[in-house]
Write a structure and sequence with these properties.
Length: 259
Amino acid sequence: MWPRSGYEFLKSQCGHDLVYLFYNSLRWSPSGNATLGCMEVDPRLDRPFLIQPFLGASGDKVIAVGAHFPHPTFSPELNVYAATARTAALKDALAEVRKESATEKIVLMADTNAWSWISNEQIWQGQLELPGSLVGTELMQTCCLDADFPAAFTFDRIMVNFGDAMQSTALYMGDLPNWTHQVKGSKIGAFHRPVFARVELRSRESGPTAVWIAMILLLISTIVLALILLGVLLRKICKHRHLVDSSSSSSSSEEEQLS
């Protein structure tokens, strides 16, 4: 069964090109309609994207984006990439969805077709003009089987503007399973290695609740330390009194003997 139980998907299509966005329907619900579009319209519709705001079971809001970027001109110059990446349609659509959904938390999952010298920040801030502090997957050789995964082809990436860190890995970095070898005559399929990412949300631990917990623990520690010091002080006082009483008793006994 596809997708597996508990998961649903959304789809965007431009010509023969498809983008699917799968989500856990037990944890997330679409909030409003998806925004679908094509990053290329001339000479034909191509390079689809899909933008969907979600509401989490815990009340969290996030905008999820799936996209297949156009191929930029091959060049080591960043200005050439910026001029030929053709990301304007996605940038404009994201700006509208951000206004309507009233949330700035975004997760982008895309075949960016960006070379290894194009940083995640260049895409996020430079091309899409998105806000927030960015964390993203490492730049890994994910494309493509027909090109034998060259070092410059770090196309497949995941980026978010929330969380403190991201753990990332590309699957099938060793031998590829047989089903990835799609061959038609002399042509080999352009299989991409899947990218897996886990966002670390340590910032939640430093929120107001955690601050109060830390203050309470500090207060308890202070009280315990004060009680320990008070106990030590009382023992010293009692010991001193005991010595004084013993000294007084000895003096009295000596006086009685002398008299």
